[in-house]
Structures are given as C-alpha cells and as structure tokens.
Design brief:
Blueprint lengths: L3 E6 L3 H15 L5 E5 L5 H5 L7 E7 H10 L5 E6 L2 E2 L2 H14 L2 E5 L19 H8 L10 E2 L3 E5 H6 L12 E2 L5 E8 L1 E2 L19 E7 L6 H7 L6 E6 L6 H7 L3 E4 L6 H13 L5 E4 L4 E4 L3 H10 L6 E8 L9 E10 L4 E4 L5 E4 L10 E9 L4 H7 L1 H15 L3 H13 L4 H17 L8 H17 L3 H14 L4 H13 L3 H13 L7 E2 L1 H17 L3 H14 L7 H8 L4 H12 L7 H8 L2 H13 L5 H14 L2 H8 L7 H13 L3 H6 L3 H4 L23
Parallel strand pairs: 1-2, 1-4, 2-3, 6-10, 12-13, 12-15, 13-14, 17-21
Antiparallel strand pairs: 4-8, 5-11, 6-8, 7-9, 15-18, 16-21, 17-18, 18-22, 19-20
C-alpha cells in the first residue's frame, strides 16, 4: 500500500515541479498526490502543477489549504512532504514499515539542524541519492524524538488531521510532539535543501497599507522614549502613542521623531489605555501591530527580513511571541526572560484585559493567544531597574492596583498578581504565601489539570518555595521546589530554590541527583528563563560537590558558573574552604584561577577568612600580576604582607597602590610605621604609588585559567 502524498509548495517553480514528479513516482499508479501552496510565495508554483497527470492542486494557501487537502484524502497513511526534500523509494518503504509496526507519527533521519532526528550534513537533493543509500546503512533505531521539523512526516489521515492546525506548513516550525507518539524510522533518511525558508515576500504591506505599526502608552517618558523610538527605526511604518498626562517634553520628543500622539486621561487602568492605543493604531489600516513601552529596547538584527516574514505569514498566523528580557542595562545579562505576544494582527480581535499586568486576549474566546516564537526580534525591558522603579514609584503603585484588583475579584490570577507585588515591595511573605496557598487550594477543589496549566502551577509552586525559604522553612521549600522540577525539569528558578534548601538541610547529594535528573529528562519550556538563576544554581552545585569532597568537579563547575554571571556566584565560602584543604601552592593556584573569572571582588572575604596572612599576601600579588584589577586585592595584600612579615611582597604590591585612594594609603602607611617599617610606609608616598587615581589605571584583561601561571611561592 502506498500513502497519499501531500506536497507543500514553496517554490521556485522548478523545485516544486521536480518534487511533484518525484512524488508521483513514489505514489505509484494507485496513490494520490495533492499539492498545496504552503505560503503565499508558493501559490504560483502550486498552480503550475495542475497539468501533471494524477495530481490535484488544492485552492487556497497555508493551513487552510492543508485542511482542505486532508478532508479530500481517503483513509490510510498520508505523507506530508516539503517540495525541497529528497525522499527515495527505499526510504519511504522503511517509513511505511515503521508506521505499520508502531502507528502514530513517523519521521526519517534528516539534515535538519537542531532537530532530534538530525543525522549530520548531506549534499543538496540533486546530488544526495547516493549519499542517502550510504547514510541509511549506518542509521538504526533511536529514542522517541520530541522536537522535529515536519518537512517529511508520515501518519494516518486522522492523526495528520490533528496537526493540520499546528501550522506544519511553516518551513521554520520546530514541532514539539512531547504528548504524541512519534518514531524515527530505522535506516530511513532524507535530504532537506531548506530552500523553503528562502521563499519570502517583499517587506511591504499588501494593498499599500502599512505592514507594521507600533502601539504604546506613555506618561513622562522624555528620558526613555528616544532610545525606544530609535530602536524601532526601519522596522515599523509608524508609531501611535497614547499619552496619559505627561508634564515633561514627552509629546514634543515623540512628535519630533515622527510618532503620532493623542491624549487620554489616566484612569488607573493600563489595559484601557493600551486598548485606546490599539484602536488608533488599527485605524491606520495596518496589517500587524507591535506593542511596546518607552522603557523597552527592540533588538532586531535584520528588520527587512522580519518584515518579509510578516508579509509572508499574513494568512497563516494571528500573532508572534518574542523573547522579553528584563535587564538593568541594554548590555547587561538578563535577570529574567519570558515569551510574550508582542506582535499580532490588527483585526480588532485582540484587546488587553486587567487594570495592571495587562494581558492580551482574543475577545471572541477571552483566551490568551499561543503564537509561534519569532527569534528574529527581542524586546529588552529596562523598567525593573531599581532606580527606574523608585523614580516612578512603580512598586507602591503596582501594589495598590493589584490589591484593588484582588479585592474586586479574588480570582486565582488576581491573587497571584497581588502576591507578586507584595514580594516585590518587600512586604509580608506570610501574606504572599497565604495567597499562593489559596490558589493551590482552589485548583485542587476545582480539579484543574496541571498539564493544561503547567506554567501557572509552576509559578505558584516556585513562589511558595521562595516564601518558605525566606521564612526559614527549608523543608517546605524543598518539597515545593521538587514538585516544580518534576513538572518542568528545565526550570532554573525552582531548581535554584531546591538546591538552596537542600544545602541548608545538609543534603548536598540531593542537589547532584536533581541536576543529573534535569540533564537527562525531557522538559517543557519554563515560563521564565533566568541567566542569574542558572549561574546561582551552578554555584550551588559547585558547593554541593565541594561538601562531598569532589574537589576537581567542584572547581570546574564553579568556573562555568563564574563565566555565566560572576555577580550571582554565591559559593565563595565553600570554594575557599575546599581550596584550603590543598597544599598552600595548590590552594593559591585554584583560588587565583577562580578569582580571575570574578571582577566583582566578592571572593576577598572568603579567601581572607580561609588563608593565613602569608598565603593571602601571595594570593593578592598573584591576582594583580595576572591582570586582576579589583582595588581590594591591593589593600588586603598590603595589609597581609605587613602582618606576615613579607616586605618583598609588600614592595611588589606598591606598584598597584595607585588603585587606592589617599585615605586608605595613609592608614596602611600608619600601620607600616607601627610595625616598625618606616621604609615601607615611605614607598606609599612615592609618586608612582600615590599620584595615580584609580580611574587612571588601565584595566588589564583577565587571563583564561589555562593561561594563569602558578602563584609565586
């Protein structure tokens, strides 16, 4: 039995025509071949296939055309195939055999990079037939894949119909089949040229209408607004701004940079203001809207390509999710990151709800859209910087609005927002924990399925774990964090809390067991992603290894964590304690290698607390000699050299004394005289030591660990 074959046409014409003729041969005399225009650029190529005998071209474009093709297909297996994929008869036979054996969905090995069925590079489809035979002989069975590219997908018609609304016509789609049975057919392999991803329309809106308009609300944003508007230049066709009562130069700045501004009186309701802006933006006739804030910065390396994608996907998607990263500065590491639907169709179908922490919903269903992820654009949000929060009084404002929202409607969602504001404001953790516990109780009473609300559940459980840890209850924190890690192993925030609780309870092995489980488990994507949490977790894992005496692994793990984010490395006491068990030279060498990754200087208290003065002095000198620039090394080193009677080390450190201010130098000189070393005190008064201010010292790049020479004896 041969499958019905649906060829997804992307063009150009020659590629699609060749794919349809090959498919006609694969289908045999009894098989059906149907052609659908996967996206707009493939419509012409699909139409030109109408004259091929035994081939049917379905009207329409995209998922709508695919659904029509499936409805017209008879019962039995269906092969969905991109027009730029080379599938030979023997490889199709292997896929069919696997489908007969296991059912569900079957994919071949392919050269689709980043997929679970990736088998390595292959030549383009015109030259790949021989290589496919060679490669097929080496590829056996594999574990069930989770993430696949549906460029060649085989299933029964009913199963394939389940995916018809999953946008499998999108050539960039990474299909997550975690909840569906899928197998890689042993020894079946295809070559995918990926010309499908190059088929994009011009970066303009159809019918002369704007393709993309930015929509936003502002009030007193003259300082932040110029950076935002500059970041979207060349990306949007215009910007519509709802001003809710600015008293500074915000309106003047906005209009000078080409934005359209209108005024509305503030009503203590962010969703209402945003919807006013959406309505005005829709009135421009735009096809797509981009929702942003003045304290956002839009990072889009190739605005033209993104606009071409928006033009191409007009008939396929209603919106796109983008990464939103909270940062203190544009170049800083993100504190948290999440995906948000910031781009959506300007059809009047989408509106914001909730007075604060507003949410975009489909007004026909009142559900949040679940759009595909667009990697070509990132929004960097600077609004949670402490200075900005304090300047605007955001913390207390948010607390007031979330409390009002909760008192008016004590729903689980409103309880969560109120509890979050309590925590951010430094309020009563008992109260935030009580609110979160009430949410869990409500879900249990209503028997709401965890699987369908995974993100919400994990946020509540992680919050409860954090509250328990803050309230001195590591046992409860450990229990709650375990629940999250079981639900979403990739959740770094919960894993960090689990590790903290486990170490407080004297259970370092549990930290290592958790990390091993997380590395091997398949996981849904966490709602929030946090580089600081991942770095802190790495530090906690290093601490656990050190406490178990696995020093080499501890130091290597610490190096990785420090490379990720030195500011969030909290394992210095454990690293110093572990290093102190080594011979003196080995101890200094290890600490020096770690300190070279930490420009914050947070390691000094731990190092000084574990090393003898003589070792401390040598460590500080080696740190400076190898390029370390933190001034604390000079102060600590000079004092330690005096205490341990090492005038030579003192003299060598004097060359770096210009990093210290005069008052500190004077105190060290006084200590030197008190110790009977007036000649050393005199060195601190020499021009080369005292006249250079700290900001005149040229920073020396820190060396990589394998470039660091042993600390001087």
């Amino acid at each position: 039995m041969r499958p019905s074959i649906i060829v997804a046409a992307y063009g150009p014409d020659a590629v699609t025509l060749g794919a349809v003729r090959r498919s006609r041969a694969l289908a045999g005399s009894s098989g059906n071949v149907t052609v659908v225009a996967a996206l707009g650029p493939g419509a012409g190529a699909a139409a030109r296939c109408a004259g091929i005998p035994g081939t049917r071209v379905v009207p329409g474009v995209g998922s709508e055309a695919l659904r029509a093709a499936l409805e017209a297909t008879g019962p039995g297996p269906v092969l969905f195939l991109h027009d730029d994929v080379l599938l030979t008869g023997p490889n199709l036979d292997r896929m069919m055999a696997e489908l007969a054996r296991r059912g569900g969905f079957v994919v071949p090995w392919s050269n689709d990079v980043g997929m679970d069925h990736f088998c390595g590079p292959l030549p383009d489809s015109r030259q790949a037939a021989g290589r496919l035979r060679e490669r097929a002989a080496t590829l056996g069975a594999a574990a069930s894949p989770r993430v696949v590219r549906p460029s060649c997908l085989l299933a029964g018609r009913e199963d394939m119909a389940l995916l018809a609304g999953s946008h499998i016509v999108d050539p960039r789609l990474k299909l997550d089949l975690i909840d569906l049975p899928v197998a890689i057919a042993p020894r079946a392999v295809v070559a995918h040229d990926s010309t499908c991803t190059a088929s994009l329309l011009a970066p303009d809106g159809p019918d002369g209408r704007p393709l993309l308009i930015a929509s936003m609300i502002v009030r007193d944003e003259e300082r932040m607004l110029p950076g935002l508007l500059a970041s979207i230049e060349g990306l949007v066709d215009g910007t519509v701004i709802c001003d809710t009562g600015s008293t500074d130069r915000t309106v003047e700045v906005a209009r000078s940079m080409g934005a359209t501004v209108f005024h509305r009186e503030w009503r203590d309701d962010f969703s209402w203001a945003r919807n006013e802006s959406l309505i005005e933006a829709e009135a421009t006739g735009a096809w797509w809207l981009l929702t942003i804030d003045a304290d956002d910065r839009v990072v889009c390396p190739d605005p033209v390509e993104l606009r071409r994608m928006l033009a191409t996907y007009l008939g396929e998607y209603e919106g796109f999710g983008v990464a939103v990263e909270n940062r203190d500065d544009l170049d800083a590491v993100s504190s948290t990151a999440f995906t948000s639907c910031r781009i959506h169709r300007a059809t009047g179908r989408y509106r914001f709800v909730r007075p604060i922490h507003e949410t975009l919903v489909d007004i026909e269903t009142m559900e949040q859209p679940k759009p595909p992820f667009m990697a070509q654009l990132t929004v960097v949000h600077l609004g949670y910087h402490e200075d900005v929060m304090a300047e605007r009084g955001k913390v207390q404002r948010n607390l007031r609005l979330t409390r009002q929202m909760f008192e008016a409607d004590p729903s689980p969602k409103n309880a969560l927002e109120y509890a979050r504001s309590i925590k951010v404001s430094g309020g009563d953790r008992h109260e935030s924990s009580r609110l979160m516990s009430g949410i869990l109780a409500t879900f249990e009473e209503q028997r709401i399925a965890v699987e369908n609300n995974r993100g919400f559940f994990t946020y509540v459980l992680t919050s409860l774990a954090e509250d328990a840890l803050a309230l001195g209850d590591p046992g409860t924190a450990l229990h709650r964090a375990r629940q999250v890690v079981e639900l979403v192993p990739a959740d770094d925030l919960a894993a960090k809390v689990l590790a903290e609780a486990a170490l407080q309870l004297g259970k370092p092995q549990e930290v290592l067991d958790m990390q091993e489980h997380r590395r091997q488990a398949t996981s849904a994507t966490p709602t929030f992603r946090s580089v600081p949490a991942r770095a802190a977790l790495g530090a906690l894992e290093a601490a656990a290894l050190a406490r178990l005496g696995r020093l080499d692994e501890a130091f290597a793990t610490a190096m990785d964590a420090l490379s990720l984010s030195p500011a969030h490395f909290g394992a210095w006491p454990d690293m110093a304690a572990a290093a102190a068990t080594l011979p003196p030279e080995g101890c200094e060498r290890v600490l020096l290698a770690l300190a070279s990754r930490d420009p914050t200087g947070e390691f000094f208290p731990a190092v000084v607390g574990k090393l003898a003065p003589a070792n401390t002095a040598r460590f500080c000198l080696a740190y400076c000699t190898e390029g370390g620039t933190h001034p604390e090394a000079v102060r600590v080193g000079l004092m330690a050299a005096l205490l341990s009677g090492q005038p030579g080390v003192f003299r060598d450190l004097v060359r770096y004394a210009g990093r210290l201010d005069g008052e500190i130098l004077q105190r060290i000189a006084e200590r030197a005289r008190a110790k009977g070393h007036p000649e050393l005190a005199g060195l601190l008064g020499t021009p080369e030591a005292a006249l250079k201010a700290p900001d005149q010292i040229s920073p020396v790049p820190l060396k990589a660990p394998d470039q660091i020479s042993p600390a001087p004896a």
